[in-house]
Each structure stands twice: as structure tokens, then as C-alpha cells.
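Review form for a predicted model. The reviewer records the input and the model, then writes brief findings.
Reviewer: anonymous (R2)
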Amino acid sequence: MFGLNDMYREREKLYMRCKRQQAKAGADRTLAKKQALEAISSTKGLLVSFALGLTTQCEAAHQSRRTLLKGIQTEVLGVISQYVAARFNPEPEQPQAKED
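Model under review:
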């Protein structure tokens, strides 16, 4: 009556299709997790991980070295400027007191 049986059948088909898609999605997620773990734990994955870690450490070391050199440069320039100032700008001589 009014096509209700056809609508019920269509609803059942859609429900079953939805359940199949959910099961397929679950299986795909599991497969993706498994493949990701295999890729990470493979020799290639470990080498890539090592290389990324090494580049990060090298960048940190480079930044630390740059900061250290900048600090040393500032200190050395300060010492040199004090030496030059003392060398080329002698203090005026004080008149000596007369001895009686």
C-alpha cells in the first residue's frame, strides 16, 4: 500500500550498505595503522627518522655555536677597544708635588 514495502526494502538495502561501508572503513583503518607501524619500524623508516633527528640536532648545534661566537665576538671587541683607548689616549700627567 502506497509503496511502503518498496520503501522498507530500500531502507534495508541502505542499512546493509552502510554496515558494509563501516566494516570496510574499520578494516582500512586497521590496515593503515599496520602499514604505518611497519614503515616506521622498517630499516628505511628508521634511517629517515635518524636523518630527521640528526638535522634537528645539527640545526640546534649550529644555532648554539652562532650564539656563542656572537658573545665571544662582543667580549673580544670590548677588550680590544679598551686596549686601544688606553694605548692611544694616555691619561694626562699629574704635576708632581715640589719637595722642600
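Findings: Residues 1-41 form one domain.
Further findings: The helical segments are 4-41, 43-88.
Recommendation: see findings above.
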